Amino acid sequence: MAFCSSLSFTSISSKSNPQKHSSSSLVPSHRPFTSSHLSFSKSSSLHSRQTLFRTHCRRVPPPNDASFLVLGCAKKAEPLRIMISGAPASGKGTQCELITDKYGLVHIAAGDLLRAEIAAGSENGKQAKEYMDKGKLVPDEIVVTMVKERLNGLDSQEKGWLLDGYPRSSSQAIALKEFGFQPDLFILLEVPEEILVERVVGRRLDPVTGKIYHLKYSPPETEEIAARLTQRFDDTEEKVKLRLHTHHQNVEAVLSLYKDITVKVNGSASKQDVFAQIDDALTQLQEQKQGKLGTVAA
């Protein structure tokens, strides 16, 4: 993104009264600058999102009584485009919150998009619901379309985006690339399987408040709460291992397409230490983008 300002000087007749151009007339007047004032060729280096302003100065005459334009630009580095992946109970949700809080990225999760589209009764939502009601997976083309539309949103384009847990297959990744969406960084949270199993199997839900507890890491505050906690049907060791197996297969396929921009993070540390690793990578990425911008400007 760029913001520009320009100075447009109009000619002044040599017969003009000098007193009319005293210091009191130095205050410039501002008028919106429209495309009719300046033409750009397709090879122009100016960014398409420039905002232009024209300033008229009534005192200083241009050489040879000719009008001329001085144009200055200040560009802003492109926003971050990040993908993050992690197995169930890897802490991905927590890290997404920390990332969006600090960097202001638009958080996009395919599951949330599906639920929102279904609730809104959109055409995509109706199609997705038909498959889900039959216990079938929603086809890639429906989900990819939802993700593409959200990535194309004005806020995503302006602020940058954090794509959470998607793509989950090489076909989804290829489809996104064909639509022109390529991440700057692919973050992979790595946690040993035994820790993941322990985290999942120990989870409990309070049906009254909706709060999630863990019998070891975050136990309930009172015996009363402990007595009413429930376990999700798929939070058993057998089922979580099946989910982890599927996740690892999918991630391997996706990593092959993003191997050059993948950052592997030790997700078994505390959430603060995990975020410190991610924060370091994102800070370096921002500095690289700003550095490239400076090189182009020079």
TrEMBL record:
<dbReference type="InterPro" id="IPR006259">
    <property type="entry name" value="Adenyl_kin_sub"/>
</dbReference>
<keyword id="KW-0934">Plastid</keyword>
<dbReference type="InterPro" id="IPR027417">
    <property type="entry name" value="P-loop_NTPase"/>
</dbReference>
<keyword id="KW-0418">Kinase</keyword>
<protein>
    <recommendedName>
        <fullName>adenylate kinase</fullName>
        <ecNumber>2.7.4.3</ecNumber>
    </recommendedName>
</protein>
<keyword id="KW-0808">Transferase</keyword>
<keyword id="KW-0150">Chloroplast</keyword>
<feature type="region of interest" description="Disordered">
    <location>
        <begin position="1"/>
        <end position="30"/>
    </location>
</feature>
<dbReference type="InterPro" id="IPR036193">
    <property type="entry name" value="ADK_active_lid_dom_sf"/>
</dbReference>
<comment type="subunit">
    <text>Monomer.</text>
</comment>
<dbReference type="GO" id="GO:0004017">
    <property type="term" value="F:AMP kinase activity"/>
</dbReference>
<dbReference type="InterPro" id="IPR000850">
    <property type="entry name" value="Adenylat/UMP-CMP_kin"/>
</dbReference>
<keyword id="KW-0547">Nucleotide-binding</keyword>
<comment type="similarity">
    <text>Belongs to the adenylate kinase family.</text>
</comment>
<dbReference type="InterPro" id="IPR033690">
    <property type="entry name" value="Adenylat_kinase_CS"/>
</dbReference>
<dbReference type="Pfam" id="PF00406">
    <property type="entry name" value="ADK"/>
</dbReference>
<keyword id="KW-0067">ATP-binding</keyword>
<dbReference type="GO" id="GO:0005524">
    <property type="term" value="F:ATP binding"/>
</dbReference>
<dbReference type="GO" id="GO:0009507">
    <property type="term" value="C:chloroplast"/>
</dbReference>
<feature type="compositionally biased region" description="Low complexity">
    <location>
        <begin position="1"/>
        <end position="25"/>
    </location>
</feature>
